[in-house]
Design goal:
By secondary structure, the chain is mainly β. The chain has a single domain, classed as Nucleic acid-binding proteins (OB fold (Dihydrolipoamide Acetyltransferase, E2P)), CATH 2.40.50.140. It is built from two helices and seven strands; from the N terminus they run E-E-E-E-H-E-E-E-H. A five-stranded mixed barrel has the order 1-3-4-6-5. The longest helix is centred in the middle third of the chain and has 10 residues, at 59-68. It is globular and about 55 Å long.
């Protein structure tokens, strides 16, 4: 049976990236992206809602994200959804994150090269569970 787990988002980073390491020492980068949704209500007023997505990037893609991305940057991220769980005070909690396999910077500063598309070919191989 075919399966598909793919997500694409365009938004701005809520804070600078953070580089972390697994228990075995494998580095990866995490950051959050805010995506705004605007609409006009029946009353004619404009409403805004913001969704936040937690992103995890591994390998060379993670290194690139950590090097070039920072708070406020506009970015396109493509990847897959992954749900994880942890226990806090005896209660099991679940959270969903995006494991990135492609990233494109959509804004850039004058001194930087033009935005490049970064893809991670073997995200699965470098990701530890």
């Amino acid at each position: 049976m075919p399966a598909l787990n793919r997500v694409q988002i365009i938004g701005r980073l809520g804070k600078d990236t953070e580089q972390r390491k697994t228990a075995k020492g494998t580095p990866y980068t995490v950051f959050s992206v805010a995506v705004d949704h605007r609409w006009k209500g029946k009353d004619g007023e404009t409403h805004k809602e913001t969704d936040w997505f937690n992103i995890e990037a591994w390998g060379k893609l993670g290194e690139t994200c950590h090097k070039y991305l920072g708070k406020g940057r506009l970015v396109f991220v493509e990847g897959r959804l992954r749900t994880a769980q942890y226990e806090q005070e005896g209660v099991t909690r679940y959270f969903t994150k995006v494991v990135a396999n492609k990233m494109q910077m959509l804004d850039w500063k004058e001194k930087e090269p033009e935005p490049a598309v970064m893809q991670e070919e073997e995200v699965e191989a470098t990701e530890e569970k």
